[in-house]
Q: What sequence folds into this?
């Protein structure tokens, strides 16, 4: 399959997953994760009409961002080191990996200096797998409460990753868990605005994530391929 066919195939699968659980396809947005492909292919992705680009290292995305940033919406999806905040702030429209207070403070400080509000997702390690980034669910509420007082951070939603080696079926409780956490944040009015988004689901498990309420799926290998 070429890029065009892969995009169509994924869109068909997204629509089918939505239909299985009675969701509207408009609720699910696709982030094309271009970390394994060249600048040229990233340009092709935008030419195909995909708007959202996801990357996880500033060093790698820099040439792509410099050449193409006006054409897309940029999502920083990887672990973000505190000393790299200055590189990505103001360039990426969304940060999906806010998982600790030191990072929140740094983001808030740099966003304040730029006079902007940075859109973030709180990354939660729902599965409890040791090697993963993200905060433990039991720390989420206290952390969210602190972040809710930072004027230059706006929380769009929650993000999680299921363990890579997990069978697709086994990921369901992970995604459901994230949805339930979002719903209880809203019920307890931790933020003065509703938290609507769930960034969850990758190439191997996006259909299950959609069945469990994903509003953003992050697709690399399956959608744009792997060249590097
Ligand atoms: C690489 C990556 C993805 C995409 O992974 P694929 O399995 O290639 O779709 C999604 N989310 C994050 C956080 C990633 O680092």
A:
């Amino acid at each position: 399959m070429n890029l065009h066919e892969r995009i169509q195939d994924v869109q068909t699968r997204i629509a089918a997953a939505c239909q299985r659980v009675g969701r509207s396809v408009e609720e699910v947005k696709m982030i094309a994760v271009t970390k394994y492909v060249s600048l040229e292919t990233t340009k092709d992705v935008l030419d195909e009409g995909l708007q959202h680009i996801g990357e996880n290292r500033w060093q790698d995305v820099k040439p792509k961002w410099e050449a193409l940033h006006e054409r897309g919406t940029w999502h920083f999806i990887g672990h973000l080191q505190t000393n790299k905040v200055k590189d990505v702030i103001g360039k990426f429209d969304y940060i999906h990996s806010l998982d600790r207070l030191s990072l929140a403070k740094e983001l808030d400080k740099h966003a304040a200096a730029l006079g902007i509000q940075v859109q973030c997702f709180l990354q939660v390690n729902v599965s409890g797998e040791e090697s993963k980034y993200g905060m433990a669910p039991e720390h989420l509420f206290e952390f969210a409460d602190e972040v809710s007082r930072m004027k230059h951070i706006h929380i769009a939603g929650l993000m999680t990753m299921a363990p890579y080696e997990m069978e697709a079926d086994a990921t369901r409780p992970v995604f459901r868990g994230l949805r339930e956490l979002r719903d209880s944040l809203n019920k307890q009015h931790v933020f003065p605005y509703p938290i609507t988004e769930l960034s969850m689901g990758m190439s191997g498990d996006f259909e299950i994530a959609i069945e469990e309420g994903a509003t953003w799926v992050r697709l690399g290998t399956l959608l744009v391929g792997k060249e590097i």
Summary: Strands lie at 29-33, 52-55, 73-76, 94-98, 118-123, 153-159, 197-199, 216-219. The pocket of pyridoxal-5'-phosphate is lined by residues 33, 35, 56, 77-78, 161, 202-204, 218-222 (CB under 6 Å). The first strand starts at residue 29 and ends at 33. Residues 138 and 196 are 20 Å apart (CA to CA).
